[in-house]
Amino acid sequence: MNDFEYLLNSEIGLVLFAINIMLFLVYGYDKFKSKINGWRVSEKFLLSLGLFGGGFGGILGMLAFRHKTKKTYFYIVNFIGIGIFFWILNNL
């Protein structure tokens, strides 16, 4: 069994996978709301999910939706989140 299969077979892995998918979708939702001047998702929420293991979803969401790409601290926090993701993966 490879690392990815092991990750998806663990409860923590499923939570991390869900956080990444959710964060990707939230970036798309926030971008949509910014276009129509609607209620927005707070930056604290986006950064918190990115920090707590959702870095992949955050980076992919930023690039796919071209959202928050000019804010350097979003990249920094999401890359730290990727580091946390790998740290958790290696310590399961």
Automatic annotation (TrEMBL):
Listed transmembrane segments: 12-29, 45-65, 72-89
Pfam families registered for this protein in UniProt: DUF1294 (PF06961)
Keywords: Membrane, Transmembrane, Transmembrane helix
Keyword Transmembrane: yes
Name this protein carries in UniProt: DUF1294 domain-containing protein
Organism from which the protein derives: Citroniella saccharovorans
